[in-house]
Design goal:
The chain is α/β, with parallel strands linked by helices. Helices cover 35% and strands 14% of the residues. Helix 8 links the parallel strand 7 and strand 8. Helix 1 packs parallel to helix 12 and helix 5 packs across helix 7. The radius of gyration is 22 Å and the shape is globular. 42% of the residues are buried.
């Protein structure tokens, strides 16, 4: 029996690789950096399935070069690296890995919030560089988290978990979203709906962004929005880099228009070493690691494997973003 050929664009958890290898002719890209587009194009030519990451571009040209392709399993919640409409047109199902990373990502968003508010990274550098000479009443003063107001932009799975963590610090939690939660859900989460983004931005001490990258959310937060925030505001983004106008963020931080920021994502990833944001002390920039716990990454890989194998069998993947691809 000839096994379907699949290509995996990075070394993922061994448990997932073992599961895929049982039923497929599996190829794995062995490098830390993603395969160049030309390599991915070549590997896809005879593949029936791909396991990809957000850094792998799967567009119409690649799909045209891969006539046998049945399924693309993205090991991520987001899938803006894949042209979904083109996949659907070609009856290629696309899977993602939602839910499994929700709490881990929310943990990290709140980690950034706390670290940025209290200058944790700056303080560690202050110590390691020998600048700590004495206890001082005005050294590295930060913002209190308890009893403050947290504004959440996008109250999906992750945003809701961040709200729970905020309530644990007795924060007042406001949220803005195009889709309002039911009154029962709002009571359960202890959140207040704000229909006007400008009002949320001007009211919150901490602002955390949790929206998908869509045409309407590109540069959702720019110069005008930073100008609405308090000068004591702490801004957190663990969603997608292009949701924020990074140049405007730099100006807001440099000028003191806002207090600090914590980012797990940037407009270009990895962030170029000469990016001016890297010259500032009042921003923490992590290398897109919000879901990076041993357990979560293993579970994401296993979910991606299940999506892949279901698609190869002609079934709808357990987590499918375009089930209509199998109809018509």
């Amino acid at each position: 029996m000839i096994k379907p050929r699949v290509f995996i664009t990075r070394i993922i958890a061994q448990e997932a690789l073992d599961k895929i290898a049982q039923d497929t002719d599996m190829g794995v890209w062995p490098e830390e950096l993603p395969p160049p587009y030309e390599v991915l194009l070549e590997k896809a030519r005879d593949a029936e399935g791909l396991v990809t990451l957000l850094s792998d571009r799967v567009d119409a040209a690649l799909m045209d070069a891969a006539p046998k392709l049945k399924v693309v399993s993205n090991m991520a919640v987001g899938y803006d690296n894949i042209t979904i409409a083109e996949a659907t047109k070609r009856h290629i199902v696309v899977g993602n890995t939602p839910g499994v990373l929700t709490e881990t990502t929310a943990d990290f968003a709140f980690t950034l919030l706390m670290a940025a508010a209290r200058h944790v990274v700056e303080a560690a550098n202050y110590t390691s560089k020998g600048r700590w000479k004495t206890w001082g009443p005005k050294i590295l003063l930060g913002q209190d988290i308890h009893n403050a107001t947290l504004g959440i932009i996008g109250l999906g799975r992750i945003g809701a978990e961040v709200a729970k963590r905020g309530r644990g610090f007795n924060m007042k939690v406001l949220y803005y979203d195009e889709i309002r939660r039911s009154e029962e859900e709002e009571r359960r989460l202890g959140v207040e709906y704000i229909p006007d983004l400008a009002k949320l931005l001007s009211s919150a001490d901490f602002i955390s962004v949790h929206v998908p990258l869509l045409p309407q959310t590109h540069h959702l937060i720019g110069a005008a929005e930073f100008a609405m925030m308090k000068p004591t505001a702490v801004f957190i983004n663990t969603s997608r880099g292009p949701v924020v106008d990074q140049k405007a963020l730099y100006e807001a931080l440099k000028s003191g228009q806002i207090f600090t920021a914590g980012l797990d994502v940037t407009e270009v990833e990895p962030i170029p070493p000469d990016d001016p944001l890297l010259t500032l002390d009042n921003v923490i920039i992590a290398p897109h690691i919000a879901s990076a716990s041993f357990t979560t990454r293993k579970n994401m890989a296993l979910m991606a494997a299940e999506n892949l194998l279901a698609g190869l069998r002609g079934q709808t993947p357990p987590n499918c973003v375009n089930p209509e691809a199998l109809t018509g």
